[in-house]
């Protein structure tokens, strides 16, 4: 197992899909900084980020071979892949393969959208948290 430095532990990165002014979608990587905090006493300190707004959650499960043709996101939402294998493609041609543990913020609620494919041999499941616009 590779040791990680405290600066690596103090940040979390996720994929982001957004639409530009022409309606084309693109990927980005967002990094969220965390600080060591006594956040749940008497538990030992751990790394914590700032709060973000959220009030509900849902699960998406796609059958083997499922393809979500080019579509905008139904709402701004975080997707955390729990199981399976997925690839997402933006209109600029970028394809990202996601594995369990990967996190994506979908912000392309307008424009052409993105394509999602279940590329695994079984079902894939996302934990989804709709989030308000910034």
Structure, explained:
It is a single chain. The protein has 1 helix and 12 strands; from the N terminus they run αββββββββββββ. It has one domain (16-30, 52-130): Sandwich (Jelly Rolls). Helix content is 3%, strand content 49%. β8 and β9 (95-98) form a beta hairpin. The mean pLDDT is 93.
| Average pLDDT rating | 93
Q: Assign an overall shape.
A: globular
Quote the distance from N terminus to C terminus: 38 Å
Strand sequence of the main sheet, in spatial order? 2-1-10-7-12-5
Supply the key terms.
Jelly Rolls; six-stranded mixed β-sheet; mainly beta; 134 residues
Summarize the structure.
With 134 residues, the protein is mostly beta strands.
Topology of this protein?
Blueprint: H1 6-9, E1 11-19, E2 25-33, E3 35-37, E4 46-48, E5 58-62, E6 67-71, E7 77-83, E8 86-90, E9 95-98, E10 103-106, E11 114-118, E12 124-130
Parallel strand pairs: 1-10
Antiparallel strand pairs: 1-2, 3-4, 5-12, 6-11, 7-10, 7-12, 8-9, 8-11
């Amino acid at each position: 197992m590779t040791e990680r430095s405290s600066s690596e532990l103090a940040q979390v990165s996720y994929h982001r899909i957004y639409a530009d002014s022409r309606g084309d979608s693109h990927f980005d990587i967002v990094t969220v900084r965390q600080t060591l905090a006594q956040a749940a006493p008497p538990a030992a300190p751990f790394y914590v980020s700032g709060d973000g707004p959220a009030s509900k959650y849902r699960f998406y499960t796609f059958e083997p071979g499922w393809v979500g043709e080019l579509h905008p996101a139904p709402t701004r939402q975080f997707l955390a892949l729990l199981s399976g294998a997925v690839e997402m493609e933006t209109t600029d041609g970028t394809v990202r393969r996601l594995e369990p543990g990967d996190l994506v913020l979908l912000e392309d609620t307008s424009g052409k959208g993105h394509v999602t494919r279940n590329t695994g041999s079984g079902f894939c499941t996302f934990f989804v948290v709709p989030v308000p616009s910034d």
